[in-house]
Design a protein that fits this description.
The chain has 3 domains: 13-184, MgtE N-terminal domain-like (MgtE N-terminal fold, Alpha Horseshoe); 197-316, CBS-domain; 329-498, Tetracycline Repressor, domain 2 (Orthogonal Bundle), CATH 1.10.357.20. The protein starts with a strand and ends with a helix. It is built from 22 helices and 7 strands. The relative contact order is 0.06. It is mainly alpha-helical and 500 residues long.
Length: 500
């Protein structure tokens, strides 16, 4: 317990949570999501084991015993699920095979379905929605906010959306239409409508009385939005100023007029960068006329960044879309075949490059043992360059003028790396095969392939960005194909000219 002293007056005691506080104990005693998954798996295993034993018995009371056993373990599992956070349940659903996933899903209380559907991945959400009837989907969706309904809308049947529309108020319908009208990469698709608006000509005491009448504040409320009678945004009233300022002061005297706002059509990635740069918790979203239409919060931005990162990882791995870990074999094959086909084509190209120099390889067998070194180092160098360029493009750090400087810089880096590591592999070749000519060819081939990797590592992402494509998708596959084929051609070509 700490006392804050101001002159001779003592402010009321301020309590800071300690290790002995009930809140701290509750947080410490809460099992991790991994431990909760183990508990769910154990209950499912016991349920399946006992159910199988009962089914093997031939007894007049077989059905009664089976029902009792069935309820016993599933009731225990249901109680466990009721104590869990929706995000933890979503994690567990994603980690379970489809049959067990549906068993757990059926045990979740109907009023929590909507929250959990928002938390699970798109692929798992599709499997859960397919298992629900129209009435269940309408009930689950109707309990969500309009911006949350808009997030689920692309995965819901049209009939469900129409039924949900009927249950909304006129204002909520307009909000839902607005949220659904924006593309996924726009700020409008991320904003929510749950916010507090005040007028600038009222006192802070009036605002405080108004807030006390509310049951709770919207999540991530760090500021109130000051608007006029036409809903035009006039300024922001930070909650900390509201609490420490004189209650008789007018809102217009303490509100801030210097703030960052966004437009619904604005790129969500730009907004995410602004939240990171300015350490924002929430920000207003205004239309072209300056009217307040919604707000953007840090949780929506974090979700967007996470999904974008997941998509980038999947794309880099050659996956067309997010894949359910326990999807059917055929679904997984369809999701993965595209880039495998591309890799097969590039492999054929590389094999034909090698085929052109079959005679040279036959005369000097050492070439076959050394050429993977040239291709492998070139591929690694190209991927390093692409990673840097793709990241810079994502952060908006590359302009037309800086692109030229990047070319020069990456070529210089690759030339120096080629000289250093080319000398190393050249010396390696000389020590093994006792041929200084072969060592020089290795050094020259290494330098040329690294220069090729640098040029293509900068060019591929920039060209894809220019064409309106995601530079992260397929770039690593393309650079690997180019450095493999190019490395083979350069090394075997130099060897044919100077050694054979």
């Amino acid at each position: 317990m700490y006392y804050l002293e101001c002159g001779r007056r003592f402010i009321r005691p301020v309590h800071f949570p300690s290790t002995e506080s009930p809140v701290a104990d509750k947080q410490e005693n809460r099992p991790s999501v991994a431990a909760q998954l183990e508990q769910v798996l154990e209950l499912l295993h016991r349920h399946e084991l006992v159910e199988n034993l009962v089914q093997r018995q031939d007894s007049p009371r077989h059905e009664l015993v089976e029902t009792l056993v069935h309820r016993q373990h599933l009731a225990e599992l249901q109680q466990l699920l009721e104590r869990m956070h929706p995000a933890d349940i979503a994690y567990i659903l994603e980690a379970l095979p489809r049959d067990q996933r549906l068993v757990v899903w059926d045990l979740v209380k109907a009023e929590r379905d909507g929250e959990i559907l928002l938390e699970v991945s798109d692929a798992v959400r599709e499997s859960l929605i397919a298992h629900m009837d129209e009435g269940e989907l309408v009930a689950a969706t109707s309990q969500l906010e309009t911006d949350e309904i808009a997030d689920l809308a692309p995965d819901l049947p049209r009939e469900v959306i129409l039924d949900v529309f009927k249950g909304l108020s006129t204002e909520e319908r307009e909000q839902l239409r607005a949220a659904m009208s924006y593309p996924e990469e726009a700020v409008g698709a991320l904003m929510d409508f749950d916010m507090i608006e005040v007028r600038e000509d009222v006192t802070l005491e009036v605002v405080l009385r108004y807030l006390r009448r509310l049951t709770e504040l919207p999540d991530h409320t760090d500021q109130l939005f000051v608007v006029d009678r036409e809903e035009s945004l006039r300024g922001l009233l930070p909650v900390n100023r509201l609490l420490v300022s004189d209650p008789d002061t007018l809102v217009g005297e303490v509100m801030t007029r210097d703030f960052r706002s966004f437009h619904p059509e604005q790129d969500a990635h730009e907004a995410a960068s602004a939240f990171d740069r300015y350490e924002l918790v929430s920000a207003p979203v205004v239309d072209a006329q300056g009217h307040l239409v919604g707000r953007l919060t840090i949780n929506a931005v974090v979700d967007y960044i996470r999904e974008a990162k997941d998509s980038e990882i999947l794309s880099a791995g050659g996956l067309k879309e997010e894949e359910d870990l326990f999807a059917s074999v055929w679904s997984s094959v369809r999701n993965r075949w595209t880039w495998l086909a591309v890799n097969l084509v590039t492999a054929f190209v590389a094999s034909r490059v090698i085929g052109v120099f079959e005679d040279s390889i036959a005369q000097l067998v050492a070439l076959a043992a050394l050429m993977p070194i040239i291709a492998g180092i070139g591929g690694n160098s190209g991927n390093q360059t692409i990673t840097m360029i793709v990241r810079a493009l994502a952060l908006g750090q590359i302009t037309r003028d800086s692109a030229r400087q990047l070319f020069v810089k990456e070529i210089s880096v690759s030339a120096l790396n080629g000289l250093i590591w080319g000398s190393v592999v050249g010396l390696f070749a000389f020590l093994i095969y006792q041929s200084w000519q072969l060592g020089l060819v290795m050094t020259g081939a290494m330098m040329l392939n690294l220069l090729l990797a640098a040029v293509m590592g900068v060019a591929i992402p920039l060209v894809m960005e220019k064409l309106g494509r995601d530079p992260a998708i397929g770039s690593s596959v393309m650079i690997t194909a180019i450095t493999d084929s190019g490395g083979f051609f350069i090394f075997l070509g130099l060897a044919t000219l100077f050694l054979v």
